[in-house]
Amino acid sequence: MKLLALIALCAAVLGLVVAVFLATWIRKSPAGNDRMREISGFIREGAFAFLKREYKIMAIVIVVLALLIGFGLQSVTTAILYVFGALLSVLAGFFGMNVATLGNVRTANAASQSGMNSALKIAFRSGAVMGLAVSGLGLFGLSVIVVALDLGTVVQCVTGFGFGASSMALFGRVGGGIYTKAADVGADLVGKVEAGIPEDDPRNPAVIADNVGDNVGDVAGMGSDLYESYVGSIISAITLAAVAAGASGGVFDEATAAIFPLIMAAVGILSSLIGIFLVRGKEGSDPAKALNLGTYIASGCVIIVSIILSKAMLGSYAFAIAIIAGLAVGVAIGKITEIYTSDAYGSVKKIAEQSQTGSATTIISGLGVGMMSTVWPIICIAIGIFAAYYASETVGEGMGMYGIALAAVGMLSTTGMTVAVDAYGPVSDNAGGIAEMAELPHEVREITDKLDSVGNTTAAIGKGFAIGSAALTALALFASYAAVTGLSAISLLNPIVIIGLFIGAMLPFMFSAFTMNSVGRAANQMIEEVRRQFRADDGILAGTTKPDYAHCVDISTQAALKEMVVPGLMAVIAPLAVGIILGPEALGGMLAGALAAGVLLALMMANAGGAWDNAKKFIEGGHYGGKGSDAHKAAVVGDTVGDPFKDTSGPSINILIKLMTIVSVVFAPLFVHIGGLLG
User: Fold this and answer.
1) DSSP letters along 17-46, please?
2) What is the mean pLDDT of the chain?
3) Torsion of the alpha carbons at 597, 599, 603 and 604, rounded to the nearest 10
4) Given this model, what pLDDT does residue 456 score?
5) What element of type H or E holds 612?
6) Residue 566 — very low, low, confident or very high, per pLDDT cuts 50/70/90?
7) I want to staple 634 with a disulfide (CB 3.0 to 4.6 A). Which of 336, 355, 572, 580 is the partner?
């Protein structure tokens, strides 16, 4: 077992080494003229200033929760692993954002000097650093734990590592999401709608804050999000290894069952490396095709190797079916997301058409698209669960939940590639902003806009992967919770369970209300500040006076740090309160309700937001009157409504689901001991 864990550790280190190589290559690429470097410097400075202040708050949370675990559960090992998981989560976001803030200006320069292919290469490789940092650090941390500790301690305490990853991911995603959308909404509504100036116009006081937000929300926050999903899927499989081994009838032992997901994750990193280096674009071609090719190649490699290793390590091809089912579901959700959020398909075009009659019809049609977009992903998830569960049950009764955990591992095995495709989007978006502010030729902005439009779709696909994996991972962790608490079934005829079920179904809506209102309040401050600057100095719109960018950056920073605390703590407090007051069965009901409601709400919000965004870009491409038309103004309103949908509330819900589940697993012994104060 230790030898295999070392192999996984080597794969993780290889991924990190390649990430360093790519980062060095990007740093050495030309950064453009003085004006471009100056703008990029503003963005980079603002991004790191926010992260520095955010990490101070996170440090306090880490210390408090580590003490709570150490003294509350009297488990020093779990507390140490919690801190380890939290620190690696923070590092994953930090490393990715560091390179993204270097890659943005170099992408803009490549578009100016060499065209589409070079710009795509730099933007994608900037995203690849994020992807390899996420998967490399995740597998590195888990492999070190397996190498350093005995199997019994790993199974008992590894959930602490996942708890650390999830808690930091939620703060990172919520804080970054509030920051970026406060700036984005303020910049759009006052700049584009009221003042009638282009997006990323240097006359807009909020433009730097908007570009900073792309990095702290869509790169650093997203990186922590996918890191949490990645390690959560592997941890759920490790914790169910004992159950699987006991049900296998001697086919394999617990150690083999525990190490198998780590080996598959190692295969995923190697496959992602192959996919990353095979992404090539051509002048005039669709960047999405190049990105999809890399994804499909990486997925194909995982499928082939999973068939071999499933038989060699676990003695049955059934577990390869589980891996492949999860991977297929992930790819299917990605394609479905593309259909509902890309302007190449009818849904987005319909929203753009409806924008001709005003913002109300834009919003109505977008909500309809978002709601309808939940149907096929849920059907795919259901099919994946069915295939993974019953294929694994053929090996031994009681192995089905282990199979579902492996399906989540399969779905996220190519996280290195998935995150690379996702993080490429905000780098391209920033490149477009720099091109606009530096007054580069119009052809440069056309290239970056095309990359950015594809990036909106790839970002939505990344969110779809995270949400789909949340369903599978939370379900597998739920099985771990049931095993720890001794629950063989949860009866819907028990009123305590029903109470928990309703509370759980309510929580994603309550959480979304907190985060949406937080964006609204922060955006209101930004709107008033931009209006104030325009009123105070006519030279800003005339282009003779430089706006006060720093004040807008400070508004977003302070608002995000203030507003992220309550939603972040809610995910920890809710399961603790229900478990202590109502007991383990009620908490089981709460987790089930949160899972069902949360997955649907997250899919709806993420896809509606992506569709609104690309409907706006479709109109900006020259349809229905183009930029400045009434249809465009209506689409901008739809886009601003969708901003917190797709970049704050929606993607944060999947972390909420898993964080509440893993908190329940970590503190399950406490809930069993108390038994529910009202039980």
Assistant:
1) HHHHHHHHHHHHS---SHHHHHHHHHHHHH
2) 88
3) 0
4) 66
5) helix 584-620
6) confident
7) 355
DSSP code string of 232-263: HHHHHHHHTHHHHHHHTTTSS-HHHHHHHHHH
Residue type, 185: V
Quick one: DSSP state of residue 196?
Answer: -
CA atoms of 349 and 518, how far apart (whole Å) = 30
- Closest Cα to residue 140, out of 26, 5, 259, 330? 5
Report the candidate in 120, 150, 223, 210 with the shortest Cα–Cα distance to residue 1: 150
Locus of tokens 């996220």? 412
pLDDT, tens digit, 9 for 90 and up, residues 131-156: 999 999 999 999 999 999 988 888 88
**pLDDT (average), residues 645-662:** 87
Interior angle at CA 528, CA 206 and CA 628, nearest 5: 60
Position 285 pLDDT exceeds 70: no
Q: Could you report the per-residue pLDDT of 171-203, keeping only the tens digit for each?
A: 888 888 888 888 888 887 787 777 777 767 888
List the structure tokens of 286. Answer: 């669709």
Taking CB atoms within 8 Å and a gap of at least 24, the contacts of 57-62 are: 57/171, 57/561, 57/564, 57/565, 58/86, 58/90, 58/168, 58/171, 58/172, 61/167, 61/168, 61/171, 61/568, 62/86, 62/87, 62/164, 62/167, 62/168
Q: pLDDT tens-digit profile of 370-407? A: 999 999 999 999 999 999 999 999 888 878 889 999 99
Cα–Cα distances in angstroms (integers) from residue 191 to residues 39, 183, 528, 530, in the given order: 19, 11, 12, 8
Taking CA atoms, 542 is separated from 201, 433, 455, 646, in Å, by 12, 19, 32, 34
Give the span between the Cα atoms of 587 and 496, in whole angstroms. 9
Contact between 648 and 515 under an 8 Å Cβ cutoff? The reply is yes
* pLDDT (tens digit per residue) in 307-336: 999 999 988 899 999 999 998 998 888 889
CA distances from 538 to 7, 542, 629 (A): 64, 6, 25
Tally of CB atoms within 10 A around 91: 17
Distance CA 515, CA 176 (A): 11
Q: What is the pLDDT of residue 6?
A: 93
CA distance 147 to 76: 18
Q: Which two tokens stand for residue 195?
A: 């003042």
> How far is it, in rounded angstroms, from Cα 427 to Cα 431?
6
On the CB side of 71, CA atoms within 13 Å amount to 5
Phi, psi of 95 (to 5 degrees): -60, -45
> Per the structure block, which two tokens stand in for 524?
């209101």
Count of residues for the chain?
A: 679
Annotated domain spans of the chain: 2-29+45-674
Classified as helix, coil or strand, 422 is helix
Q: Which two tokens stand for residue 360?
A: 């109300």
pLDDT bin (cut points 50, 70, 90) of residue 283 is: low
pLDDT tens for 240-258 read 887 777 777 767 788 889 9
Instruction: Strands of 371-445 (E only): list them.
Output: none
Instruction: Answer whether residue 446 shows pLDDT above 90.
Output: no
Distance CA 552, CA 549 (A): 5
CA distance from start to end of the chain: 43
